[in-house]
Amino acid sequence: MDTRKQATLAIMESMQVVRRRLMVRKTITDITFSQWAVLSAVMKMKRGGIKEIATELDITPSAATQLVDELVLKGYLLREGSDRDRRAIFIKLSPKQEKNLKDLKAKRLKKFNIMFRVLDDEELRTYAVLNKKIAVGLLNR
Fold first, then answer.
1. Could you tell me which CATH class the domain 3-139 is placed in?
2. E-strand spans in 24-132?
3. Of 8, 67, 95, 129, which one's alpha carbon is 20 to 30 angstroms from that of 137?
4. Which sign, positive or negative, has the C-alpha torsion 122, 36, 15, 25?
5. Residue 1 to residue 65: CA distance in whole angstroms
6. Are 37 and 57 in contact (CB under 8 A)?
7. pTM beyond 0.85, yes or no
8. How far is 43 from 35, CA to CA, in rounded Å?
């Protein structure tokens, strides 16, 4: 097996471990990793539609709708109609959850910092650059 293929397989295995750890320990809430991604997208755009959320996360509108529905039921998101177009529905954070999600984001940052403590500063900077390069490559495919 060639070196590049071996390295890719090793990365795949490592990524699975990281993802499992992040998903299993859902921080302190009942939010899954995918739901957190939706909340982060909504926090970033303040108010958007299903189509914008799906585009931001590179998922189907159907998948975005399902995730949003779960978060509306949990009280994290609200659906808001448009005054100008009754067909348009906007998704936004519920007022009660805005502060909670900022606090949760800080806790998740702490969790990631713990995860990355095995890296020295230079390794972390290198990882950040490589990770961004991969993310940009995925977005531009």
1. mainly alpha
2. 47-48, 77-81, 89-93
3. 67
4. positive
5. 42
6. yes
7. no
8. 12
